Each structure stands twice: as C-alpha cells, then as structure tokens.
Amino acid sequence: MIDGLDPIIHVPKRLAAMAVLANAPSVSFRFLRDHLQISESDLSKQMSTLEAAGYVASTKVGRGRGGSTTYRMVEAGQKAYEQHCAALRALIGDA
C-alpha cells in the first residue's frame, strides 16, 4: 500500500521544497527559507539531502554575505516527485 513513497521526499520539509521547485525553473535559498518558514541551517540540511539524492542541483554565486544560492529540480527529481505524488494519491484514494 505504501509502495512508491520516496523516503527522501516524504519528509515534510523536503516534500514542501520539492513542491515549490516543481512549480518554478529555479528558486533562491532566501525564497525557500522564507516560504517554508524554517531556519537557514535546517533548509541547508534538507537541500543537501535532496542534492545528494540527485533530485536537485544548486548554483552558488559569490561568497559570504553577498553570495546567493539557487536550486532547481533536475530530471531525476521531477520523476521521483511525480511518482511520490502518485503514490500519495493512491494511498488516500484519489488516484
């Protein structure tokens, strides 16, 4: 019954980040932090997990206080997200 749920994506903060990334070509670290209302360290940890899984890619520009990081969902992440959403719909009977 829970086949298809991705344990990497299923964590609420990562699921929310993937939902944002699924609807935008790329988003800034600051936008994600503010939109998800989580700390910088927590967001960094969640995005590092998604990046290590091969679901998102990051681009860093500059360093220190003037630097910025943006994230985008890669093809493998898009497929995993779509499969996870389909599994959730099946689980709740909305397939």
- What series of H and E elements makes up the topology? HHEHHEEH
Strand content: 5-15%
Helicity level, as a percent range? 40-55%
Q: State the helix count.
A: 5
Mean pLDDT: 92
Question: How would you describe the overall organization of this protein?
Answer:
With 95 residues, the protein is α+β, with helices and mostly antiparallel strands. The protein has helices at residues 7-10, 12-21, 29-36, 40-52, 75-91, and strands at 27-28, 56-61, 68-73. It has five helices and three strands, in the order ααβααββα. The protein has a three-stranded antiparallel β-sheet. The longest helix is centred in the C-terminal third of the chain and has 17 residues, at 75-91.
What are the main properties of this structure?
3-stranded antiparallel β-sheet; 95 residues; 3 strands; alpha+beta; elongated; 5 helices; 55% helix
Per-chain topology:
Elements: H1 7-10, H2 12-21, E1 27-28, H3 29-36, H4 40-52, E2 56-61, E3 68-73, H5 75-91
Antiparallel strand pairs: 1-3, 2-3
Quick structural summary:
The protein has 95 residues and is of the alpha+beta class. The chain has helices at 7-10, 12-21, 29-36, 40-52, 75-91, and strands at residues 27-28, 56-61, 68-73.
